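WARN retry 2 of 3 for item q-0093 after timeout on previous attempt; input resubmitted unchanged.
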Amino acid sequence: MALAEDGTTVVDNLPDVILAVVSFSTDQGVFEGGEATTALPVSGGVADTGSYEGIFGGPDGEEIGGYTVLEGPGNVQVTTVETIQWTYTFEQDIIVGGVVVGTQTITQTGTTSGFDSIPASELQEVTNAGGDIPAFIGAPTSGIPAGADTVSTTQTFEFLSDYQAREVGVFVTTQQ
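OK item q-0093 returned
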């Protein structure tokens, strides 16, 4: 169980735990000094770090029991943000003294992003409060001129809470 800054319980699923690097004592049937980690969902970087240890049991040493202690961000949220780059080209009359004397080509360009609708700072605040952020944030299109050429791209971002959490877990299984 994790608590958000406002004291409410964060009920998100915990990430998969990766158990690596351990020392075995075949004399005592224990393993210790294990390094436990979890991975960030998009970048694959390390989110939580900690340790684990346990024992082998049963008549044939097939049963395994142990515990993990991990610390890391209390909440990780992921969103994909759309960015639209646009170009609008049009002809405009050149008027001198009320008389059209020619035309000129005008090209306007612009960029709009989902972060224009929901700033990254607001998404960070929601993550810190233990809330969920939208999975996709589209770029607003209201400022794009009709008939403009557009190119849409997306990028995925991870938001990690500013607070840390400790996760303690127990595992029991049999060797396969």
